[in-house]
Design brief:
The chain contains 8 helices and no strands. It has helices at residues 2-67, 72-95, 99-105, 109-121, 131-145, 150-160, 180-199, 217-243. The radius of gyration is 45 Å and the shape is elongated. May be part of a spliceosome complex. Belongs to the SYF2 family.
């Protein structure tokens, strides 16, 4: 009988120690789980702040894009292309090469034909139809040549503010004085137009040394037209008549 009692006592002691170990293990597991949840919470909090910051940046960028002109992307691409062309020209000049020749060597025959077709379709010269159309073409050609001074424009915006953009109630007469550079630029452009008109004028200068073979201006125009079409066939006959050897 004493032996079984001792065995029971030893069994009860081992189970007690296990019961004491279980609360410590459970507390450690709960603490670890709580720490894991706090870590995930901190990660989610950081991700939320990062997303909020990115959203704010995107809103600011979208607002900037909306305030830009409608064709800003095309202008930006055009400016970037012009910068690349300028850099290519400088590189060719440094190597002593002709830029136009280098550019043509890099263009394929298909691209060249496509560009030529596109150039012919763009703004075709249909000849003179009326004075209004000629004036419109002249206006479009001149406006394409205008290069605005953005620095001066920004200075005027700072100086005048909203008054720079007139309304129906604005008094414009006498409020704007053009700069000397602008006046000089306009005069130079007008002189260039006058020079070009004189160069391509259909009027021909009068030649005092030319033979007078007409009786009035209309007859002179007829003789010039006949000379243009039949002069090479009648040159010998005319020379014989002048020498007096014609049969």
């Amino acid at each position: 009988l004493p032996a079984p009692v001792a065995e029971c006592g030893s069994f009860q002691g081992s189970s007690g120690s296990e019961d004491e170990a279980r609360p410590g293990t459970a507390a450690a597991a709960a603490a670890q789980k709580r720490e894991e949840r706090l870590r995930k919470f901190r990660e989610l909090h950081m991700k939320r702040n990062e997303a909020r910051k990115l959203n704010h940046q995107e809103v600011v960028e979208e607002d900037k894009r909306l305030k830009l002109p409608a064709n800003w992307e095309a202008k930006k691409a055009r400016l970037e292309w012009e910068l690349k062309v300028e850099e290519k020209k400088k590189e060719c000049a440094a190597r002593g090469e002709d830029y136009e020749r280098v550019k043509l060597l890099e263009i394929s025959a298909e691209d060249a034909e496509r560009w030529e077709r596109k150039k012919k379709r763009k703004n075709p010269d249909l000849g003179f139809s009326d004075y209004a159309s000629a004036q419109l073409r002249q206006y479009q050609r001149l406006t394409r040549q205008i290069k605005p001074d953005l620095e001066q424009y920004e200075k005027l915006k700072e100086q005048y503010g909203e008054a720079l953009y007139p309304t129906s109630d604005s008094l414009l007469h006498g409020t704007h004085v053009p700069s000397k550079e602008g006046v000089d630029r306009m005069v130079a452009d007008l002189e260039k137009q006058i020079e070009k008109r004189e160069k391509y004028s259909r009027r021909r200068p009068y030649n005092d040394d030319a033979d007078i073979d007409y009786i009035n201006e209309r007859n002179a125009k007829f003789n010039k037209k006949a000379e243009r079409f039949y002069g090479k066939y009648t040159a010998e006959i005319k020379q014989n008549l002048e020498r007096g050897t014609a049969v």
